[in-house]
Amino acid sequence: MSADLKSLRLFVAVADHGSISEGAKRCHIALAAASKRISDLEARARLPLLVRHARGVTLTSAGHGLLLHARAVLSAMDRLGAELDDFQNGVAGVVSITANASTIAQFLPAQIGSFLRLHPVLKIDLQERASTEVVKAVQAGLADIGVIEGNTPAEGLECLPYRTDELAVVVARDHPLARRRRIGVDEVLSHDHIVVREGTALHRVLLSAALEAGVPLKVRMQVGSFDMVCRMVEQGAGIGVLPYAAILPQLQILKLRCLKLDAPWANRRHLLCVRRQQELTVAARSVLEHLGLPD
């Protein structure tokens, strides 16, 4: 089937908001015209894409399939438009990288900075996502390069070694653990935790450790960044488990202590992932090679 981009954008908006009228509003299309575009899509697909009901619409199986491809097509067209604009402005290419929070906090800024100094006419779009979402973005063609935690399933992707890091425990200076130098898993799990949002590799590894130990994970608070974990730990709200390199700068400005974590999962590896190396643009391949260089 063939479909114009405006109809695909409308379909994605309808799927995202569960309503044809809301999708029409988001795309600045009259409701009658939007309904006709959706009907035309279904006629060309020769399958129902939506189930209409009193509260809005839901996707059929065919609709879910179209949504996946529509997002990839629209993303590719948006990137094409952005790259053409950049060429007009003298920028010779855009490379999109989607990475987990740990690698953004520890490794990527310095590497991307050094790459851009060598290639000033290139542009890099860096986005933070949980490792599982990074995989989905690369699989769908929404990112050229992904950076994920090593234990993340990455079916269909080519993965290359990237960096390793070490998890540690951060506590407030007046916490009962503050005079300790190291701590084991069982004792860590006995305390209240400040954790980064659900779905991140850090959150998953703590849940897995708690499950293996047969105890609940005591989550006192969920926050959106490593810096916020450290700030709430300083206030005595709980302890945090973070990459050591992410804790280190905070020790200089906040009233915190860092403990070595004695756990088999404290040492982690991170991977670079792409769909196919040979399918990358010259610019993306150059970035991938630069990221793969040793420290």
Individual helix count: 12
Mean pLDDT: 90
Helix/strand/pairing category: alpha/beta
Tell the overall outline: globular
User: Helicity level, as a percent range?
Assistant: 40-55%
Segments where pLDDT lies below 50 for 5+ residues?
Answer: none
The count of strands amounts to 12
Family: Belongs to the LysR transcriptional regulatory family.
Keywords: DNA-binding, Transcription, Transcription regulation
Domain HTH lysR-type: 1-60
GO molecular function: DNA binding; DNA-binding transcription factor activity
Keywords:
295 residues, alpha/beta, Arc Repressor Mutant, subunit A, D-Maltodextrin-Binding Protein, domain 2, two-stranded antiparallel ribbon, 12 strands, globular
Would you kindly provide a written description of the structure presented here, covering whatever features stand out?
The protein has 295 residues and is an alpha/beta fold. It folds into 3 domains: 5-76, Winged helix-like DNA-binding domain superfamily/Winged helix DNA-binding domain (Arc Repressor Mutant, subunit A); 89-163 and 269-292, D-Maltodextrin-Binding Protein, domain 2; 164-268, 3-Layer(aba) Sandwich (D-Maltodextrin-Binding Protein, domain 2). It has helices at 5-17, 20-26, 31-45, 61-88, 101-106, 108-118, 131-139, 185-189, 201-213, 226-234, 244-251, 282-291; strands spanning 50-53, 56-59, 94-99, 123-128, 145-149, 158-172, 182-184, 193-196, 219-223, 240-243, 256-262, 267-274. Strands 3, 4, 5, 6, 7, 10, 11 and 12 form an 8-stranded mixed β-sheet that branches. Strands 1-2 form a two-stranded antiparallel ribbon. Strand 1 (50-53) and strand 2 form a beta hairpin. Helix 1 crosses helix 2 (20-26), helix 1 (5-17) packs across helix 4 (61-88) and helix 2 (20-26) packs across helix 3 (31-45). The protein starts with a helix and ends with a helix.
